[in-house]
Amino acid sequence: MIEIKNVSKTFNQRTGGTFTAIDNVSLSIKKGEFLSLLGPSGCGKSTLLNLVAGLEHAQQGTITVNGKPCNTPGPDRVVVFQEHALFPWLTVLDNVAFGLKQKGIPKKQREEMALEQIKSVHLSRFADRYPHELSGGMKQRAAIARALAMDPEILLMDEPFAALDEQTRLILHKELEEIWMRTKKTILFITHNIREAVILSDRVLVMSTRPGTIKKEFNVQAARP
Ligand code: ADP
Ligand code: ADP
């Protein structure tokens, strides 16, 4: 469903010249697949995710979702970022309902839809709280609920659990796995944590420290119970 073909992305440097962040990468992601992109900081993971999200543009190559080019953000792809994802001036309910409001869904209906997603991430008791009243794990649950409320085909997750303590992270792994099983979303998940990649994914792509190339690929599904 996601086809990335011979994609290269360079950035102009402040000092002049260009920097290649993604160098001729090709890959396909199947519908319903949970794919992790693993690699050290600076290897180009976020850049690749932002290209799929339509937030960045490649100088070379093509990226399509269901055959359609994705050079602008679309309702079929929603990003969950590491942090700062929620509007601090809105409650959890209003944060989760925000995108539905943009879509023009009437208030009563969008609040019902938002509350359903809030329930699915076990935050019902906190629907009326503001982000600063929540723990890190709860904020990420709310960000996931907000993404799910838009019912995208694809969830793009950029190190969503990297800022959390180990115990919270393990709980959220279980919850994300449940969400994936239940919703059958296609998930592109970025991490620099190999355990996280192996625990969560069907398939792991390892990006090289030399920016922008995929070095290895392995399936983990077969190895899981
Ligand atoms: P990762 O997500 O693997 O940590 P990034 O995709 O964020 O890596 O970055 C890859 C490389 O591209 C890094 O060296 C980073 O500094 C550079 N880069 C990312 N975004 C920009 C930008 N907007 N302008 C210039 N360089 C950038
Ligand atoms: P992460 O490591 O979480 O991927 P970064 O700290 O690399 O995030 O990047 C944060 C933001 O800054 C991103 O939007 C990225 O595109 C941008 N960025 C990263 N490196 C550079 C750079 N050298 N010049 C300009 N913008 C950059």
Automatic annotation (TrEMBL):
Keyword Nucleotidyltransferase annotated: no
Positions of the ABC transporter domain: 2-225
Keyword Phosphoprotein annotated: no
Shown segment, full-protein numbering: 1 to 225 of 279
Name of this protein: ABC transporter ATP-binding protein
GO terms, molecular function: ATP binding
Keywords, alphabetical: ATP-binding, Nucleotide-binding, Transport
